[in-house]
Amino acid sequence: MQIGELSELTGASRRSIRYYEQQGLLEAARTRKGWREYDEHAVNRVLNVRELLGAGLTAEDIKAVTPCLDMKTEEFLACDSGPDGLLAMYEQRLAVVEAKAAELQRHRAELVQHIARLRASATDTESFAELLRSGA
């Protein structure tokens, strides 16, 4: 099948499909005219890649489970591609996401504190101007 049909079957844009190929997550044969041709496994592969990217994984993360990408989604979720299998990959990415979430929570707390200070001193114009100059 060509890239347009693969795009229609998977909901992935042609640009995304080309990106997956550039990242080594998908392979295509070339016709004599240079057009990409994909085999029947490409549909499962693209659906799985989209699922993993949607879960917050990176192309590098996904490369660790390349042998599983051609499986149907139900089978893919049970695939273990060795010591660096799906579970380890998800756990590592979850740790990164949790660290980012904690950092965002700290930023949120600081913003709430600054907003509260600004609102409290908004009634006194001189205090408000001083507060803005101090950056507190």
Q: What is the overall shape?
A: elongated
CATH domain topology of the largest domain: Multidrug-efflux Transporter Regulator, Chain: A, Domain 2
Percentage of residues assigned to helices = 55-70%
Helix-strand topology string: HHEEHHHHH
The CATH architecture designation of the largest domain is Orthogonal Bundle
Structural class: mainly alpha
Spatial strand arrangement across the major sheet: 1-2
The overall average pLDDT, rounded, is: 85
What are the low-pLDDT stretches, counting only 5+ consecutive residues below 50?
A: none
CATH top level class name of the largest domain = Mainly Alpha
Total count of helical runs of at least 4 residues: 7
Number of strands: 2
Oligomer: single chain
Radius of gyration: 24 Å
The largest sheet, given as strand count, sense and whether it forms a barrel, is: 2 strands, antiparallel
N-C termini distance:
60 Å
Strand portion: under 5%
Number of domain units = 2
List the helices and strands and how they pair.
Blueprint: H1 3-10, H2 14-22, E1 29-30, E2 36-37, H3 41-54, H4 59-63, H5 73-76, H6 86-121, H7 125-134
Antiparallel strand pairs: 1-2
Short description:
The protein has 136 residues and is an all-alpha fold. The chain has 7 helices and 2 strands, in the order H-H-E-E-H-H-H-H-H.
Can you characterise this structure?
The protein is an all-alpha fold and 136 residues long. The protein has two domains: 82 residues, Multidrug-efflux Transporter Regulator, Chain: A, Domain 2; 52 residues. It is 63% helix and 3% strand. The protein has a two-stranded antiparallel ribbon. The longest helix has 36 residues.
